[in-house]
Structure formats: structure tokens, C-alpha cells
Amino acid sequence: MRTNTLKALQAGGLFLLVVPLAINADDPRGRRRAMTSQPTTRNSSSAPAAGEKAPHIKLKSLDGKQQVKLFEKSGKRPVILFFGSYT
Amino acid sequence: MERMYKDFKDIADFYIVYLREAHAADSMRAVGYAKDKKILQPRDYAERCEVAERLVKEKKLTIPFLIDDMSNTAAQAYQALPDRAFLVRMDGTVGVAGEKGPRGFAPALREIKEWLEEYKKLGKEPEIKTPRERKPTSQPSRRKRRGVKP
What's the pLDDT score for residue B53? Predict the structure, then answer.
């Protein structure tokens, strides 16, 4: 009987020990990041990085005459995109 | 940008993707020249095209313009506001991913130029360099070293 409770305690203790460790390992950066700068982290994580597939986009040319579909199929030439505005 | 276009337009496609105005005269973060030139935030697609047209004329741009839609789909997909530059390889993967904003733009231009020069010299696309964005992958290994399962 005594040994049983001891075992149970040990198991419980072990469990308690493991849980905080797991939280620490998972989180110290993640949680801080989430608290301080969530929008920027979310932004930078969903922007395409080198080596990743470029998101498909479908845009009209300025004169409205052309519909340009990009990156759905592989192309014959590399494509350079400059994103921006006047101001 | 224009210079690079002239130098490399025979081997690559260039586009300027015109987005919503970052510092329009009627915005909270208006810049001086936006006020001087009365550049307002376009309210609909037609107005957006008008401002883009002004930009093309006043800066004498020859790179083809594409206009983002009013839901800013392209800006979202590429996290490109206020400005950003990318090079996409023929297989549709990103070759150069610039960082966001004016600080990221100039280094990205340099990197794209180097890529294109190498492409021209080699006659094939250069290998992808280890991107800065990959850094987070080093975190799991630190976790492993501690012997804790993720």
C-alpha cells in the first residue's frame, strides 16, 4: 500500500517535472514574441522566402488590356517584381 | 530599377506592382511631397490607376505596371507594404526575397542585380543562397540538445 502511494507520487512528480520543462522548451521566445510584436511576426512568417514557391497572383496591367497570371506554371524567364506606391 | 530593367530586360521579365499608397497626403503618415503633389489614397480601382499613371509619367518609368486590386491581394500574398522586391526563378520558386520597406529595398536591388549578372554569365540560374529567413530552423535543434521532445 505504502509503496503504491509512493509510486503514484513519483509518477505525479515526474509528470509535474516534465510539464514545466516542456513549456519552457516550447515557449520562451514564442510567448515573448506573441506578446510584443504579433503582427510583424505573422507578417514575416507568411512572406515567401528564398527557395519557397512564389504565391500565385493575377493582376491587370495599367491600361487594363492585359491580365497577367504569375507563377501558376513555370515560365521561360525569371521574373522580377518591384512592389510599391508613389509615396 | 529602371537601369536594371534596361540592362536585363532581354533575359528577364520585370513588373512594378502598384500597391495602395503608403504615405498619401490624406493619411496619418503623410509625407511632404505627397502633400505638395496632392497624392491622395485612391478610393477605388480607377483612382488607383490614375495615381499609378501619374507616377509613370512624372518619374518617366518604362517598366510595365501591374495594379493590385482594392483588397490588396498581391500586397498581402507577398507582405509587400510599403515596398519590397522579389526575384522569382523560372520554376516558380523565389530566388531573391527582399526585406520589407525602404531599408530592405536597396539591398534587395543589389542582390537581384548580382543574381541576374550571374545568370547572364553562367547561362543558367544561380543556386539559391541560404536565405536569412531560414534562421528559425535552428531552434528545434537547440530543443533537441536539451533532450526535450517538442
Answer: 97
B17, β-bridge pairs: A83, B66
By Cβ distance, the residue of B8, B55, B74 closest to A59 is B74
Tell me, what DSSP letter sits at residue B15?
Answer: E
Residue A86, chain B, CB below 8 Å: the answer is: yes
Task: Domains for chain B: give ranges and CATH numbers.
Answer: 2-145 (3.40.30.10)
Evaluate whether residue A77 is within a structural domain.
no
Closest residue on chain B to A67 (Cα): B66
Counting the structural domains of chain A, the total is 1
Contact B104, A66 (CB under 8 A): no
Q: Is residue A56, in this structure, part of any structural domain at all?
A: yes
In Å, how far is A10's CA from the nearest CA of chain B? 19
Alpha-carbon A18 to chain mean position: 26
Beta strand pairing call for B65-67 and A57-61: antiparallel
Domain residues for the domain of A44 are: 2-70
Which pLDDT score is estimated for B141? 54
- Kindly determine whether residue A25 and residue B150, on different chains, have CB atoms separated by under 8 Å: yes
Predicted complex ipTM = 0.85
CB of B11 within 8 Å of a chain A CB? The answer is yes
Does A36 reside within a domain?
A: yes
Summarised one tens digit per residue, pLDDT across range A7-43 is 655 555 544 444 444 444 444 444 444 444 334 334 4
